[in-house]
């Protein structure tokens, strides 16, 4: 009896594996050589560009301590992007691998290249949207021990959670993780200074980001299911709705569609997720080397003249709106408002005074590149504080300004953002290399989960194309509006949506694990980063 059963099981197993891709092939020596060569080139290029920027400032180096801290912080930040790369690779390549549209290793390299391009061509809006979640007082003193504790805590927490979920084969969200880590640092910082924990986070910005993370998997599920149903009505080619036969590639037009969507998701992932690392690296650079990175020194001199002129007319409009004496310490008034969100009668006069002071400073120097190294950090902090105050006042309608004054305030804020919110090319290249190379390592665990463990049947061509198309468009739209979304949640929920629409059935064990990761990621990251921040502030 046993002898009859075993062959039957073996045959069934062989038949079930006949259509599965071969994922165990190891890369050759040439591939490994190219990988490490690109990695070394990226690190050397980053180090060279960094030293070149410092040399251009002409500031004398008295101690190497900031550079050591900077090196460690940069490696951790790039490590986060590297882990993000292989953690999220499956979002782009699982469908083309399991439909045999591309060989596994070629698909991974292809995805890595377009992740690289996505980072290079990104706008930067998402990067600074992420930074806006951090407590303003920590951003203003990012070069202090508390600032370094903040950066190290949130990055290490994000890396640890991403590695843990990757090890378990769970497609968890890197965006979700990073935002949870940022919130954890903000809450811990507020509690450690005797304030209510909720005051340490900009909950308006956090809610905005939270909605994008909450809605993205629901959009992925519903839209992918509807797209598959629409395809069934409009396209009658039966081959589109069948699982691959053996390991033969699909018809050329289906294959082209799947490769196109894989390419689009890879590019969109690079453009969206790569910016998170950029924003954190800029925060690190501003904290450790303000003389080189606090202000955009590449801006032409005429921009400084325009900046001063806009500052002057904005100050005049504010004085006209609230003609009362400026407080003795306008910076403290603005800092209190940004931290507490409670406007005082001195707020508008303080904003007018600081606006005028910034304008006079920039006018006196004549160009951003001529701001002395020792003054660079203070000028930037004043600019950042003013920009945040304007943003919050506009959001809460503080001051009830007329249209002309409001327009001048927004024009001044844009000028400030142009001077402070910039990303050097070498930072983009470093993040692009880290994310691109990260896609080529450790991708199998998540690929298997997405390709085999969400639905009860093998992924069809139409299902793969529907899920990838929805993921590509959703991530691209989020990037356009400067919102971080979870590539992982959009794609995995899209695959689940197509399985449900197709009547294939879902593997509820996997779905429960995905939901658990989705629910637990935020509180786990908050707790982990808060604990690390408390510990690091005690050590530094």
Automatic annotation (TrEMBL):
Subcellular location: Cell membrane; Membrane
Membrane-spanning intervals of the chain: 30-51, 63-86, 107-132, 138-161, 168-191, 211-231, 252-271, 277-295, 422-443, 515-536
InterPro entries assigned to the protein according to its UniProt record, in alphabetical order: Phos_transporter
Reactions catalysed: phosphate(in) + H(+)(in) = phosphate(out) + H(+)(out)
Membrane topology of the entry: Multi-pass membrane protein
Entry-linked Pfam families: PHO4
CC terms in the record's Gene Ontology section: plasma membrane
Keyword terms: Cell membrane, Membrane, Phosphate transport, Symport, Transmembrane, Transmembrane helix, Transport
Molecular functions (GO terms): phosphate transmembrane transporter activity; symporter activity
A GO BP annotation: phosphate ion transmembrane transport
Family (UniProt): Belongs to the inorganic phosphate transporter (PiT) (TC 2.A.20) family. Pit subfamily.
Protein name: Phosphate transporter
